[in-house]
Design goal:
The complex is a heterodimer of chains A (114) and B (113). Chain A is mainly β and 114 residues long. Chain A is built from one helix and eleven strands; from the N terminus they run βββββββββαββ. The model of chain A has no long low-confidence stretch (mean pLDDT 94). With 113 residues, chain B is an all-beta fold. Classes of the chains: A mainly beta (114), B mainly beta (113).
């Protein structure tokens, strides 16, 4: 089944404790992206990657890191999480740009930072 | 600036009735698609329908259709014969170059039996 797999689905952590949210897609998509969803704000892009070893900042990159060492994987790293990073996170992939193809989304990760 | 505005934070509809969700957008792109996504309580983001901006014909997918007014930059979603399973958050999305997709704040749709 073609899909984007995110883990974990839920995560509660403490301020300052490094964490990684994994994302993997099995559709051979070139383009991958991370979004955060907050009430009243919709989804906002954190980082994106157009291909292996090519990443760039989205609208809200502060406090996040990403890497794209393999085409299928695009982990999101929070080096020192803070409470304002409590949010619902989505990984998404697209065959090429989302402009024409839209996104396939993962099932989301609910992160709480206390 | 490229923005997407959904002016209705919440809407409700009676089962089997029709409801229209509004969306306006602003983009400098000349060739693009517009998208509506559905997010049920499971929180999975599901593509409902997409519209090619260079086509005048409105897209239709079963009970879902759009009213696309390019000059007005309006892209509303019409749900006919509403079903209980249509209850969800609905997000309108407009591409922002090849690297981003801008989403509206969402409309929460309630379906009353």
């Amino acid at each position: 089944e073609a899909q984007v797999t995110q883990n974990p689905r839920y995560l509660i952590t403490v301020t300052g404790k490094k964490l990684t949210v994994t994302c993997s897609q099995n559709m051979n998509h070139e383009y991958m992206s991370w979004y955060r969803q907050d009430p009243g704000l919709g989804l906002r892009q954190i980082y994106y990657s157009m291909n292996v070893e090519v990443t760039d900042k989205g609208d809200v990159p502060e406090g996040y890191k990403v890497s794209r060492k393999e085409k299928r994987n695009f982990p999101l790293i929070l080096e020192s999480p803070s409470p304002n990073q409590t949010s619902l996170y989505f990984c998404a992939s697209s065959l090429r740009g989302s402009q024409f193809y839209g996104y396939t989304f993962g099932s989301g990760t609910r992160l709480t930072v206390v | 600036a490229q923005t997407v505005t959904q002016s209705q934070p919440e809407m409700s509809v009676q089962e089997a009735e029709t409801v229209t969700l509004s969306c306006t957008y602003d983009t400098s792109e000349s060739d693009y698609y517009l998208f509506w996504y559905k997010q049920p309580p499971s929180r999975q983001m599901i593509l409902v329908i997409r519209q090619e901006a260079y086509k005048q014909q409105n897209a239709t997918e079963n009970r879902f259709s759009v009213n696309f007014q390019k000059a007005a930059k309006s892209f509303s979603l019409k749900i006919s014969d509403s079903q209980l399973g249509d209850a969800a958050m609905y997000f309108c999305a407009c591409p922002h170059n090849n690297n981003d997709m801008r989403f509206g704040a969402g409309t929460r749709l309630t379906v009353k039996p």
